[in-house]
Amino acid sequence: MVIRELYIKNFGKFTEQHFYLKDGIQVICGENEFGKSTLHAFIRAMLFGLERGRGRAAAKDGFSRHEPWENPGYYAGVMRFSCGERNFRLERNFARATRRAYLVCEDDGEELSVEQGDLNMLLGGMTPGLFDSTVSVGQLQTEPGQELYEALENRAANYFETGSGEMDISAALRVLREKQRDTEKAIREEEAAQEAEREKLRMECTYLERDMQALQCEYDEKQEQLEALKNRKSSGMMREETGTGRAEAEERETYQADEAQTERIVSGRSLNRMGLVGLLAGAAGFLWSFFLSGADAPVPSAPSAVISGVIAGAGILLLLAGIYTRSRERRDAGSRGSRTRERAAAGGPVQRNSGREHLSEIRSAEIHDAEIRDAERRIQGELDHIRSVWKDKEIRCGNLREQCEEYEPGDARKKLGRRLEALALAENELKSAAREMGDLTARTVNRRASEIFSAITDGAYKSLRMDEERHLSVWDGARNIPAERLSRGTIEQIYLAVRLGAADVLLEESVPIILDDVFAFYDDKRLESALKWLSRQGKQVIIFTCHKREEEIVKRIVCS
Amino acid sequence: MRFIHIADVHLGAQPDAGPLYSDRRQRELWDTFEHVIHVCEEEQTDLLLIAGDLFHRQPLLRELKEADYLFSGLSHTRVVLIAGNHDHIRADSYYRTFQWSPNVYSLFGEAPAYVDFPELRTAVYGFSYHSREIREPLYDRFAAGGAEPFEILLAHGGDEKHIPIDGKALSASGFAYIALGHIHKPQAVEKNRIIYAGALEPVDKNDTGPHGYIRGEITDQGVRTQWIPCACREYVHADLPVDRNDTEGSVREKIRKLINDKENKNIYKITLHGKRDSDISFDTKRMKELGNILEVIDETSPEYDIRRLYEDNRENLLGQYIGHFAGCGEGSVEYEALCEGVDALLESRG
Questions:
Q1: In this predicted model, what pLDDT tens digit does every residue of A459-496 receive, in sequence order?
Q2: Which residues of chain B neighbour A419 with C-beta distances below 8 Å?
Q3: What is the DSSP annotation of B45-81?
Q4: How is domain A1-126+509-560 classified at the architecture level of CATH?
Q5: What is the pTM of this model?
Q6: Which value does ipTM take for this structure?
Q7: Which of A:121-180 have CB within 8 Å of B?
Q8: Do A422 and B336 touch (CB under 8 A)?
Q9: B243-265 per-position pLDDT tens digit
């Protein structure tokens, strides 16, 4: 790309000015305030536009800095340039309200679109940042910026790229990582689905186990019932074995009938009680009759006294009869007690009240035992049933557990695992390939920068090296010297060499080299070497300076 | 003497059967088993030989009752069975206590025994698994005892963990016929003589191909056998070729056609093979929903001319990357990684 003409309509201090440029090296020499830096800024603004900053930054940005001094609403310019044998005219209007860019091929009148990236294509994809950090060197801004290093890293992958578009290493890595995440997610889903199935089996197992536990409880209960039944049966049997037998029971029954008889005759004790009551009632009646007559006659009232006397007499009689009966009863009881004791000694159970019931008990015991046997049989049947149900559940449970253990990942899951492995491998290999390419790029940049630096210093230094940490050092044939130990002028030369070396590596299109007052620290010898080298590059080189010596040297070089 | 030999019926299994048949697949195993019993009855087969794994796991009592009910309906056929590794005889196995119908003879002992059928001039030998695995080659030393003119061995196993079987030793064992079970793929170790009937119905998604039973006859002239397919479904592992003109839609169409071609009765695992357009990717999960498909595996790789890409990009990252995978074969993890990386790099290109 060669810039042919800069037509500044209204930009900074310039209005309606034409600057004509030629291919190869040229010097634009002017005193301070001439507007060299404005021209430099104009070229940049024509190539990349002039964006208005926002907020406070806006006050100091390029847009404000170069806003026309007069008539700021009219803020525009034209640049004519040739590129690949074709001539173009680029017109820009920077003013906010009327901002637009217009690119046309002057050879055939074809209109191109800046918005669509046609200009970008002509520039070989160069970004403003890259422009600033390589070919465009401003006053006191020789040191390559961060942008350069990043561009070198990013472009490492694409340096020799010949096809369309550029590969973006970080985007590619991002794609791979995204795919890994997706795959991991798919694996998790797959596993969750399988786990859900297993969980279902485990739940079923748990239910079965719970059932089995309940069955066990039921079984134990029934077992106890059965034990109890057996005990009852065995105690019944004991009674039959050791009991008095039917005859004795019958005897006991007669005896008990006897006793009932005695019970029916008025007992001595009750006679006593009745006598006592009669006596008391008689005494009370006598007193009552005495009380009735009390006031008018000292002698008690005859009829009531007689009645009371009769009652009391009857009471005394009854009491006597009672005392007699009771003493007889006591005697009887004594002899009956000894009889019972005898019977007890003979081995019969001392069950005074069981008598007649005992017989019926024994009769019903026979029925009862049959019932117990039935119950036993029934419970045993139930127990067997429980056990078989339990066993069935146990086997089902075991089968389920087996099934649960047998789950293994399907082919789809295996495939996903393999894909994940492949993606991780791809990421690793891509990183290492990028590192290698980075090394390769760094080597290329170093080689190119070394050539330039060696030319500028007239061979005083053999090579220049930029390491991974971006430390610069030079090799003078005997020693490796860190850049910071060198003189200001040499450091400036190292920077220029690195920038131009990187430009060779990074820029596809040959772009004009613009050097704005960069030679201030150069001695004449090195300046001449540098200008000689620049003139040999077959590129457009625009040098802005306020010194005459550059112009003179260039004239000399061009003439020779 | 005419017999039918079945093996690996795996009653009670719940085979993977895809969305259409999963529910009834378990029932189908019983149906096919019942079908074989009917065949025995119709043909008045003399012996039904069951070479192990009648049940998939420990049989439940009701399952045994079901099976025995079917056996009891046989008016002529006698049934001889052994237990295999799946339904091995555990301490609490119902096999130990179950009362079979009189026409059912079980060889459930751990030690070899035989059942004698003098009227058939036949004796059937065998023993059962009492543990899940038996690593000793127990059949290698097994020889016909000479109890009857026709002697049959019921055997189960044939892999490392389940009684390794030596074909030569079996061949020399003197049995007229050896009914093998355990290996699900029907195959003959020795023609007409030592035969794996194969699973009656395919039980696992890897039991591909047709399945059925062996019908045979032993006469003084020798044994003749015939393999009869009867399974109601097949597992089909179908390889579907894909090329650069295929899209998701066209592959779906191909799958649909493939499934319908075979009346949609089978259960599929479909593997996509070949080179796809590098811009296309397949949603296998969605493809799976097209029919009775267990899995769709995408083994395709994007259609990159790797060599050409390498030549064209020798000096940039792409070439450098491809160079890292020099010599890896298609289908390997490395090749997949190569394709993924190339894909990512090309995609990152503006």
A1: 888 888 887 777 888 888 888 888 888 888 888 888 88
A2: 336
A3: -SEEEEES-SBSSSPPHHHHHHHHHHHHT-SS-EEEE
A4: 3-Layer(aba) Sandwich (3.40)
A5: 0.61
A6: 0.81
A7: 156-169, 171-173, 175-176, 179
A8: yes
A9: 989 999 999 999 988 887 656 67
